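Subject: Protein record for review, amino acid sequence with backbone structure tokens
Concerning: The relation between a protein's sequence and the shape of its backbone.
How to read it: Take the token row as a discrete description of the fold.
Enclosed: The protein record, placed directly beneath this head.
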Amino acid sequence: MISPKVFIDELKKLRVDFFTGVPDSLLKDISAFIMDNTPPEKHIISANEGSAIALASGYHFATGKIGMVYLQNSGLGNIINPLLSLADPAVYSVPMIVLVGWRGEPGVQDEPQHLKQGEVTEDVFNALNIPYEVLNANAENVGVQLGFVVETAMQRQGPVVLLVKKNSFESYKLQKQIQSYFSCAREDVIESIVKGAPKDAIFVSTTGKASRELFEIRSRQNSTHEKDFLTIGSMGHASQIALSIAMEKKDRVVFCLDGDGAFLMHMGGAAIIGSCKPRNLVHVILNNGAHESVGGQPTCALNIQFDKLSESLGYANYFHCTTIPELDKALDELEDAPGPSLLEVKIKVGSRKDLSRPTTTPKENKLLFMDYLRK
């Protein structure tokens, strides 16, 4: 395995000292090291992967140097447009290194949402005519491989990809931990919302631990999972799934359990919710200011004034909670408050170490959920 320090030191020798991207579980050690050891102006955690390509492009325009973008391969869809219409040698010709965590690598066990993405990852880069290398986890050769990748990027004046397999980097724990001043655990908040919601309410939960916790809550209650759509992939899109359901099922309350990182990734969706004005939609932002599922790197969500944002976007109501009693009071008020409503709950970082994953397949979840919606 490669030491994150060695990896970054070798890049800096090659004059690569600007980093941007979206945290990934396979890259959490390297992104944590960057977070702890890079000045803020040289490291930007972007809202989404496409934005990171743009940030690296702007850095190149300003300095003539190349930057490194890091992401999970689930974010390939977000980067294709700026890769082809901005950074490609046929357009603005922007050299950069794109470090991609290879989730769902063929032959490696992974979660269902990563399997197809992992299978076609190499095909995607071949189709885009972007050269790629699989990172060699041999620490002695990392400098040679990085030198070749940087040279290739400069010669072609365009992006070059480094694919990273599982366990390529040595462990590194983030030192700049998010300071949490809030008492509520996300799982307790979700359980309170489930208990306080109307019996026929519909739930759409975002990717990551929120969906896992919702599944476990239903299991503890000896309840079926038919009321819940668990968005195990497609980060940032849960709110739009919830919106279209709410527009079709106007007699049912729809709760979207969203994370702050997911909300930021495609925040334009919130403007669409405000313009459509679904009276039965409650958009819950579980805000801990962190990309918790992939290493705990910070988001900027704790600095956002969601009250002003929700009003400007067209939400009819805004509720803010930091305790369970405040949440229970807000849920009571929501019963008589036509939406769309934004409910921001400030929560602490962390979850149970024994938190399991859903035991149903995505297709089973979909079919059970669709059957419930027909009732």
In short: The longest helix spans residues 112-127. The radius of gyration is 21 Å. The chain has a mean pLDDT of 93.
